[in-house]
């Protein structure tokens, strides 16, 4: 087993997102109650029940997705391992030899269009949960990968150690 130099797990549990999702659920439930309580003979009751059920399933799925989403980044001797369940369940690994250069950056959200697993033709792939800091990897293949972090100094120190092939535990 390779020794771990750095490990960070970020959860998508920001209060703002939970309030937004709660608001959407409340609006949907309120709208459904309004439709059922107002008498409108032109609407078919079964259609309303089906469409309301679909709306609730979608909202609960999105709420579950946001609540269960997290970014797991590990730096071990010789490689970086990352995953972002439930979107990227399988661990992805990048060898030290595949990295051309790296930098810890402050990035504008607009470069990637938000948080999550994002792709940009100009800026490459990004896996972020929140904030505007990340480890940007420039790979020898020409690809760019940004991994979000809440600990820019810690990940920078870990990258320096990994690239120098130091394998002390943190």
TrEMBL record:
Transmembrane spans: 16-37, 49-70
Q: Which UniProt keywords apply?
A: Membrane, Transmembrane, Transmembrane helix
- What's this protein's name? Uncharacterized protein
Protein source organism: Fulvivirga sedimenti
